[in-house]
Amino acid sequence: MQQQELYDTTMDHMMNPRNYGKLEKADGQGIGKNPQNGEMVIVYLKIEDGRVADIRFQARACMTTIIAGSIFTETIKGATIEEARELTDLMLEKLESMPPEEAACSEMVAEAFLAALEHYEARRSDPEAPVPTHMITKSCATEEKEREDG
Fold first, then answer.
1. On the chain, which terminus has fewer CB atoms closer than 10 Å, C or N?
2. How many angstroms separate the CA atoms of 75 and 120, rounded?
3. What's the Cα-to-Cα distance from 13 to each of 23, 40, 82, 114, rounded to whole Å?
4. Regarding predicted confidence, which is higher, 98 or 131?
5. Which positions ≥6 away from 132 have C-beta within 8 Å?
6. How far apart are CA 18 and CA 28, in angstroms?
């Protein structure tokens, strides 16, 4: 993807986030949370015939998280559960090579998705299973920002 195309795609997702909002009667939902600043993402899943038939998200977080959620949900929608897991694992693996402050937002979205899958699977045997929360391991606060704030 060329630089201009990447910029245009990012801006489009920022101005018109896809799949944002609550999904009523979700089959699974999960939370990805940043324990350092309280930011969080909730992912809602509708699973049909082993595929992600619908996916939505809500976020109390920065615009980068909204963009990541929009792109991620567009990518996952329609995938089989196994394909979605593989894409998520690949994304988390790629985030390892990024600076933590740049990776944190995308990690929060991915962890919320994994928590939603966990919830979906738990609800198959226990309809009252609690919604899981996965904490992220990256920090979106740089040392310089921490010094400024502290």
1. C
2. 19
3. 19, 19, 26, 22
4. 131
5. 30, 31, 115, 118, 119, 122
6. 19
Q: How many residues does the chain have?
A: 150
What's the structural domain count of the chain? Answer: 1
- For residue 44, list its beta bridge partners: 29, 56
Q: What number is the average pLDDT over the span 3-16?
A: 88
Q: Which of 10-14, 99-103, 122-126: highest mean pLDDT?
A: 122-126
- Cβ-contact 73, 57 below 8 angstroms: yes
Q: Which residue segment(s) compose the domain that 49 sits in?
A: 3-149
Cα-Cα end-to-end distance for the chain: 39
CATH at residue 81: 3.90.1010.10
Percentages helix, strand, coil for the chain (3-state, rounded to 5) are: 50, 20, 30
Tell me the CB-side half-sphere exposure of residue 60, using CA atoms within 13 A: 8
The pLDDT value recorded for residue 9 is: 87
Tell me: the pLDDT tens digits for 20-58? 999 999 999 999 999 999 999 999 999 999 999 999 999
